[in-house]
């Protein structure tokens, strides 16, 4: 149903069942909404996969940097392993944080 259709006052006096097939219109609307939601979910999934791949590379670079993780662990008051575990968790659940950490900790 288009938002630009004008109201026919003769049609408004008829019961809903005689105006149009409202069930078919609702079904079409629901199908359209499901399709939009599915395409949005696919886009989010693709973005997440790309971010996770970039985070994996950033994590490898952070691990390979000599003394960087030890320095950060000392600053945070924990062990190097704890920093690596935190970075691993970020790379799985919040990949943007690992990418941001690499940008801050290892300026180009």
Characterization of the model:
- This protein has 108 residues and is mainly α.
- The chain has one domain (9-105).
- It is built from 6 helices and no strands.
- It has helices spanning 9-12, 16-19, 22-64, 68-76, 80-93, 95-105.
- The mean pLDDT is 90.
* Beta-strand percent range: under 5%
Succession of helices and strands: HHHHHH
Averaged pLDDT, please? 90
Number of helices, where a helix is a run of at least 4 consecutive DSSP H or I residues: 6
User: Total number of β-strand segments?
Assistant: 0
Q: What is the total number of structural domains?
A: 1
Radius of gyration: 27 Å
What is the percent of helical residues? Answer: over 70%
Overall geometry = rod-shaped
Low-confidence stretches: none
Cα(first) to Cα(last) distance is 55 Å
Which structural category fits the helices and strands?
Answer: mainly alpha
Largest sheet: none
Describe the secondary structure blueprint for this structure.
Layout (H helix, E strand, L loop, with lengths): L8 H4 L3 H4 L2 H43 L3 H9 L3 H14 L1 H11 L3
